[in-house]
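Q: Sequence in, structure out?
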Amino acid sequence: MKVSKYIYSLSLGHLFVDFSQGALAALLPTLITQHHYNYAIAATLVFAMNLVSSVVQPLFGFLSDKYNTGWIIILAVLITGVGFSSLGYVPTYALLVMGCLVCGIGIAAYHPDAAKLVNGLAGYNPGQGMSIFSFGGNIGFAIGPITLTLAVNHFGNSWNWYFLDNCDYYHVNFVETLPNHASSIGRLLVEFKKGPQFQNSCPWSQ
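A: Exactly. Output:
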């Protein structure tokens, strides 16, 4: 059975959100130089982002099962982009931590509903669908450090706007591909509870 094209879109979103986690470690030398932090203080930013994305994610999973929160995947990429991009221009350590926390919340918000949506769209090919979705996240995490390093070397302190522009581009194009936009995500997740047989009648399965 043909894999829905929307799985590839969701995989690309997975790439963007996991890119931030991979790229943050590569950003630490720049932050240390700009703000004169020691490495231990700077490394706390990685801890903050990973901690909140891990701790909060089960909560989003619970809300995903209890309510129709599929619309949140549309916002999660943008939230992640805003949080991560803020690290390039906020002046204080407290605001850097806040940016990492916002980014971590966006990462946590994306995964449960996106994974559930991929599973529903995959129909009778859940292994293939989830592998494509996971591939996007793994690639994002892998290319994050080298991509950010190149962006910082080329754009200097403007790297954050480059990153945010790319997140906005994905966000806008993803929303435009949705049938009836966010409301359809909620309806799809309701249909998902009926089992994989709904794929044949789902407008997203084409």
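The radius of gyration is 18 Å.
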